[in-house]
Amino acid sequence: MSLKEIAQMTGVSVSTVGRILNDPKHKCSSEEIRKRVLEAARKISYIPNANARKLKSGDGRADEIYSINILLTRFANETADPFYDELLMQLEKELRNSGCIISNVWHNAEFSDEKASRSESIGTLIDSLYADDERRHDGLIIIGKVTRRALRVLKTKEKNIVSINRNSTNYEVDEVLCDGSRIAREAVAYLARLGHTKIGYVGDCHNESRFTGYQAALAEAHLAPDLDYVFDTAPNETNGLIAYDYFKGLDEPPTAVYCANDILAIGMIKGFGKRRQKVYIPSVISSDDIDASQYTKPMLTTISLPKNDMVRFALMLLLDRIRGGHKIVSRLELEGTLIIRESCRNYSELTEPEYYI
Amino acid sequence: MSLKEIAQMTGVSVSTVGRILNDPKHKCSSEEIRKRVLEAARKISYIPNANARKLKSGDGRADEIYSINILLTRFANETADPFYDELLMQLEKELRNSGCIISNVWHNAEFSDEKASRSESIGTLIDSLYADDERRHDGLIIIGKVTRRALRVLKTKEKNIVSINRNSTNYEVDEVLCDGSRIAREAVAYLARLGHTKIGYVGDCHNESRFTGYQAALAEAHLAPDLDYVFDTAPNETNGLIAYDYFKGLDEPPTAVYCANDILAIGMIKGFGKRRQKVYIPSVISSDDIDASQYTKPMLTTISLPKNDMVRFALMLLLDRIRGGHKIVSRLELEGTLIIRESCRNYSELTEPEYYI
DNA sequence: CTAATATGTGATAACGTTGTCACGAAATGC
DNA sequence: GCATTTCGTGACAACGTTATCACATATTAG
Fold first, then answer.
1. Do B98 and B191 belong together in one domain?
2. Which of A302, B1, B295, B357 lies 20 to 30 Å from A251, alpha-carbon distance?
């Protein structure tokens, strides 16, 4: 379906076909020709190739080039979370594909110091990001958590913002997310389905909606919450290991544990082989599905967050807003997917050597 | 900024430049060349021309033409809701703009009869829609409420589905919506802000999340719920008028009313001028913002649902799914906008003639 | 040391469109 | 009726990219 094709069908030149179809005030020498061309076009249901047109006109210039800022929130006292790095990589790839320029990637940690509160450190960021007026910014993509206060300041400087995985409950800024509560509920429900009744939680209990999901899932499975099974901690590998040792020391350790985070789970799994005498190997499930989670031993069962879709949709929302599409706040929620690997066992299959020795 | 340009700058061929920039595992004969090319590319900040690429790969094919079904759910015992008609009109427009073919618009009411349950009537629909195998369907857009059971059946026949304004809480199908509860909360909160304390509700109380929002807003404003102020009814104009008469008959009628629906509000407003002796004119707010709501007298204050954005995003999601973009369920929530017209008054401004005579 | 293979290179041809140009035919001028 | 203008036509180049091919060189085998 090209002009060439029609030209061959009708015996006229490509140029003439193009003129007949595109130039409304074009007069054919013979009306016969015109009819034949239109007929042929209809027959093969000709549609002009937008790419060729844009290429020729130079107009397409891949839409226009937008200059996008990226803000990756990470705080000085937190160790890196690979999940965000993987999101960032994917995002950079997607931006390039869409012909956008990444004008700046701003890692929050570089600007914060131990004393500065989160909001303050973001204040510094804003000053730094938008200090030089010479540079044009078309939009900002935020990866990770940002306080409401910081966001409010940010919005005064930048109108086109989309956040990824911020997990807020209010409409403050365009947002793409996986509902943490839902993710956790799915994970814990899976453990319950496997027959586990003593299910532990490792992770932040205050700022993390995943904890809520854990509680909800217990309630849905008619399991009484047990505070001994909740290990409130910041999400990093070391703390996962510490949590393991804590659970192991209990009189009746949980037979299964939900870690809010792959990193925590990986830390916990590292404990499995550490001690000689007693072996305590609970079923472990977590959420995120970072690349590393398939290289642990046992391989980690986890709720996979759709990284690719998240960044693609985030960019989609941002570009729509930049181009004047939607003015209101929109919020795109994506489903997680349970990836069953090796780290969870059916409760009834637990044998002595795997549980206690 | 083209490969050619870089080639001229560096003295190598276009082919080589292309390979260096695109093929990650390309080995240059001299590292010198590679460096010069990358340097030149950086210097002119080279960005690949997406149009040329798509043209070459033939991939772009100006979209392809998709054949889309539309299902507008409406039930025999319900009168028409203009909101859905307006959504449909907008959707048809958007589909045409995107080069899609509307293969069928299916009004549920035509197939349902008084006796059939909702699910059954949808069963009939499915048979009818997908009976003729000759026709190719690429996707289905559902406008309005569909029961979970019906959706499950529908999903066996059609993989690419997006629903608009279904307002479900689960992940069952791609969905674009305005959270009914949130919308109602915003409306009622506005009435509370105007100083009203006796706030009525008109609409469905069982299948409608907006009722939940009404209750939540009352609680947030520290107002005790009063069952006398809740008028449970199906959403149509006549019932709006009936609700007006009901409220008017109360000893202490509400000074403000939230109607779940513009249609209900319009019916209620029609009551204002009907009687001679006593005049009861409560503040009225509703949600949807159908076209008619700006032609009432007084003009209706309402929470506007972003019809255009809803259909645009719905199509965006559907096309992404059709093209193999996302496989998981996604759910796009949009904000409503308070449109202040004339039908709401500050409580303190209420004078005798406006309230009771 | 020659023969065979591997490997990077540059010229060239597409992809489908539109703009430019020269050509021939028709219409107009004197 | 000849010179001039108008006008539709077809050939061809260009947009920026990538794939294919032949070629020259570098590497390896015998």
1. no
2. A302
